[in-house]
Amino acid sequence: MRHCVRSTKQAGIKAVPGMQHFNNYSKSPWPDFGVPPYGCTPQGLESLKSLGDWWKRRTGRFSPEGPLGSSSLPMPLRIVADDCDRDVASARAFLDGLYGTEVPVGALDVDAKPYLPTAQVALKFEGQEVAVEIASRLESMPEEANFAELHDKFWELLGPGEAGDWRDAPCEVEPATGQLIGRCIATSAFAERFLMEWGSGKEFA
Q: Would 82 disulfide with which of 13, 17, 87, 181, CB 3.0-4.6 Å?
């Protein structure tokens, strides 16, 4: 698995110049997650604990010494997590649900190495080279008709904000970074935040 239900950043939307905050794109303020950007929300950790408990009940009872009863999971179970705070917290929440009481020593290793890209790669691309390639692919795969419906749906949900009608911002590639900008990235950001808020029990006014 990747990680918990988490918060998002408050800014970083590149659609309308000078308007990067979520609140620039909505009539009403977005609810606050109550945790730092990209941090696990309380509900996100609780859902992972429930997942661990589900595995425990599905595969048999567990103890620090090993399985009691039938189990499809080898025990003792060892989880390796990246050294990012949310990944460590996610692993611990899952283990808490799995064991229920005392998580055995050695059940969790925090190690970033398995998640690092290989140091030796055959090809290395600079930002502008990436931008040219992405722009070429974007041109060959224009937005489908239902994309406009998605943009319209979010516009209706959010209402007009300080950024104005962001649906007019063309979906294109930023030359310096190779990142997508415009309405497509705005809709993507809104969809992600709505999903994370739903998973965190938030309501959008």
A: 87
Q: Give the list of residues 6+ apart from residue 195 with CB closer than 8 angstroms, or none.
A: none
pLDDT, residue 79, reads: 86
State the amino acid at position 82 in one-letter form.
Answer: D
Angle made by CA atoms 8, 155, 141, in degrees to the nearest 5: 80
- Note the pLDDT tens digit of each residue in 75-88: 667 788 988 999 99
Percent of the chain residues past pLDDT 90, beyond the cut: 49
User: Nearest Cα to 4, choosing from 36, 53, 41?
Assistant: 41
Q: Which of 81, 1, 86 is nearest to 40 (CA)?
A: 86
Calpha distance 6→27 (Å, rounded):
24
Contact 182, 15 (CB under 8 A): yes
Distance CA 86, CA 167 (A): 33
The CA-based angle 119-123-129, given to 5 degrees, is: 120
How many angstroms separate the CA atoms of 43 and 56, rounded?
Answer: 20
